[in-house]
Amino acid sequence: MSYLGTTQTLFVKEVSNEGAYLDGHDLGEVFLPKQEIKHELEAGDSISVFIFLDNANLPTATIKKPHAQVGEYALLRVKEINSIGAFLDWGLEKDVLAPFNEQKPRMQEGHSYLVRLYLDNASKRICASNNFNRFLSKDEPQYTHLQEVDLIIAGKTDIGYKVLIEESHFGVIFYNMVFKSLFVGQKLKGFIQKVREDGKIDVVLEKPGMAKVSNLGDIIMEKLKEEGGVIALGDKSDPEIIKKIFSTSKANYKKAIGGLFKLGLIEIEAKSIRLK
Q1: Whose CA is closest to 61, among 71, 52, 69?
Q2: What angle, rounded to 10 degrees, do the helices at 210-226 and 239-246 form?
Q3: What is the pLDDT of residues 88-111, one digit of tens each?
Q4: CA 228 to chain centre
Q5: Any bridge partners for residue 232, and if so which?
Q6: Which part of the chain is the Conserved virulence factor B first S1 domain (predicted)?
Q7: pLDDT for the residue numbered 2
């Protein structure tokens, strides 16, 4: 079975001067234009292509890779807005539509938005939506304390970053728990800190404990070697500079350099550390 909005491996049925006709199974013939063919094809060959509908609503193939496929999230820029919605650049010549009723908040031309691509059941058209609630799980979250999860940064609020957890629930990373640059659309790992009684979920990016500190110690040692044996960051250094250099809190940094000191690897001063 072939699916619109996804990358598939299809067999070539026929090759003509205009391009190749591929076996799209339930989609029928899928046309691959001649300019998309980068090497010689003949009937029976297979090729990996992305399938979408052209302006005549006919299944068409391309070897180009869009920024996202159906069921995936991506940060896309609005190129144009007309009477039916916003058209977003997703890496193909034909832009993807975000209908007005799928915009939350309403999109503006030239701005970029995190969206999920979906296949509209009625029109069979590939569309984009930033109304994420309709894609989330309706089940109560069953995450456990410090469970590792996949995250997507969905936006910023007054208290922290709003994140999608496993593409199933919303959560928040409080600003005071962030020690590196984050941006909307970024995909990264995190850990469940707490699932509250009201179902809201707190997330952290750093797993607490000595394992994290030990790993930070290795990073500090590498940095020391790169800097000729001295780093101008010690016990009394500015937390913001530590955060900028090592993407961690001052407390974690002090624990890490304390561990290196006990191992006899470094010397610690108020505003610097150095290799022994």
Answers
A1: 52
A2: 80
A3: 999 998 999 999 999 999 999 999
A4: 36
A5: none
A6: 4-64, 70-125
A7: 63
Q: Which domain holds residue 11?
A: 7-62
Mean pLDDT of the chain: 92
Beta carbons within 10 angstroms of residue 54's beta carbon: 14
Instruction: Give the list of residues 6+ apart from residue 261 with CB closer than 8 angstroms, or none.
Output: 267, 268
Indicate whether 83 and 45 sit together in one domain. Answer: no
Residues 18 and 53 in one domain: yes
Do residues 50 and 107 share a domain? no
Q: For residues 192 and 177, state if they share a domain.
A: yes
Query: Distance (Å, rounded) from C-alpha 16 to C-alpha 63?
Result: 18
* Residue 68 is assigned to a structural domain of this protein: no
How many domains is the chain partitioned into structurally? 4
Give the per-residue pLDDT at 44. Answer: 94
Distance between CA atoms of residues 214 and 210, nearest Å? 6
CATH number of domain containing 173: 2.40.50.140
Tokens 């076996």, residue located: 23
Tell me the average pLDDT across 149-154.
Answer: 98
Domain boundary among 159, 189, 204: 204
Residue 161, domain member (yes or no) = yes
Do 81 and 100 lie in a common domain?
yes
> Per-residue pLDDT tens for 218-257?
889 888 988 999 999 988 889 899 888 888 888 888 988 9
Cis preceding-peptide flag for 59 (omega within 30 of 0)? no
Query: Measured between alpha carbons, how far is residue 24 from residues 5, 51, 58, 124 in Å?
Result: 13, 9, 12, 15
List C-alpha distances in Å: 264 to 144, 224, 231, 260, 271.
Answer: 38, 14, 17, 6, 19
